[in-house]
Signal transduction histidine-protein kinase ArlS (Lysinibacillus telephonicus), 465 residues
Amino acid sequence: MKNLKYIVINQSLKKKWIMSTAIVIFISYAAICTVIYLALYSWLLQNEENNAIRTADDLTSFFNSQNESISISEFQGNTGLFKAIVNQNQTVYIFNQDGYEVLRINNKSSAADIVLSYDQLRKTVISKEVIDNEDVFVVNKFVNIGRFHGVMQLIHPLTTFQSMMQYVLTTMLIAGLGAILLAVSIGYYLANLLIRPIQDLRDSMMSVRDKGFDKEINFAYNADDEIGDLLKIYRTMIAELQSTFAKQQQFVSDASHELRTPIQAIEGHLSLIKRWGKNDPDVLEESISTSLEEVTRMKKMIEELLDLARKEERDEHAVTNVEKVLYSVKEELEVIYTDASIHISTTGEPLLPNITENALGQIARNIIENGIRYNDRKPIIDIDVQYLSKKVVIMIKDNGIGISKEHLPHIFDRFYRVDASRENTGGGTGLGLSITKMLAEKYDVEIDVQSSVGKGTTFTLNFSL
Ligand code: ADP
């Protein structure tokens, strides 16, 4: 039993499905057939019994209706009348009181023994017996024919009933076999239909396990049911994992590559101090301040990398007062860059776009600070906020060095720097605009950049409401 259970459990889902469908249909069919067969059996048998008794009763009434003076020998010569009452498969015997046969109508079956007393025979006695290897009903009854007193015996064979039952059984068996074949075919078709996507899912999982995210995941099954949902969820999960995995790899390689430069610079300066710097205050001073600058840059880079790596969820309910954020960024930057002037103008009735104060502040700060840093004149930044219907547009225009056409498509790439040597104040990491882009994508902010070398750059932020 345990072995059987083990074998069944280890079969494929498809086989289990087909087997269980076939077994369930077989058991239900067998149960229904058994009930129908038994009911039919007892109903038809009862019918046969009633038939035999009715014939016996008809015969006795016929005998009773005859004249008192009629003798048995008159009947012996003419059995034609009886044959109208008795059907051709039935046999009727009439015995005298000594048990001798005096009359026989038809000759299909031999007579049965009469072991009953006359008292018992006053009523109709019916029994089921086997005569000449055949199942029969035997009806025994006491009869009076004129002055003759004797016993009538009716033999009613059950051959018609039995062949009828045989026929029913054969039909049921053939129909049952057909039903099981049909059930197995339908089960096979359904199993194929429903288990194929699960097999595809398993194959895809195995491929991800063995070969990683190389292969594109496509499933032929796209019905709108539980399995369809499962496949969709799996596909999105894998896509997300794939992009997270790719981002992580990119992050590690970018970070290690970019951090190597400041570390090498610090290493160089420390060797310099070790060799000469201890006795030369100028070298010492210079190396220490350059190393400090590098450390500060490294710290900024690490913070920015962490900002980029952190995948915070979008806050769907956040709304922000644009002017309040822009004024606070302006104040903050004017303290750091004292020669820069930042102007803010607005048109229209204030609207509140969906973005957090922190995200908008970071986006604005990165763009404004770039306008100041990449500038060889006195930096002037003009910010124009337009509240339009269902839209807020922020234009940030600087009078900086501008970005040439070939560099413009790349400025949002990680670590992309047009020309580090042209920077007004040191410390650029090439990450500022990547962070800006990441935040803008999170809050569906469209960014457009127009630039002209030597004249300046304009960043346009579009917030749809
Ligand atoms: P960084 O930390 O180097 O400033 P960003 O991602 O902020 O990195 O900018 C990428 C590059 O795009 C900068 O190195 C700079 O060369 C160029 N850039 C960005 N904004 C401006 C601007 N307003 N004017 C000129 N060049 C710009």
Notes: The mean pLDDT is 87. The pocket of adenosine-5'-diphosphate is lined by residues 366, 370-371, 374, 398, 400-403, 411, 416-418, 428-434, 457 (CB under 6 Å). Residues 222 and 228 are 5 Å apart (CA to CA). The chain has eleven helices and ten strands.
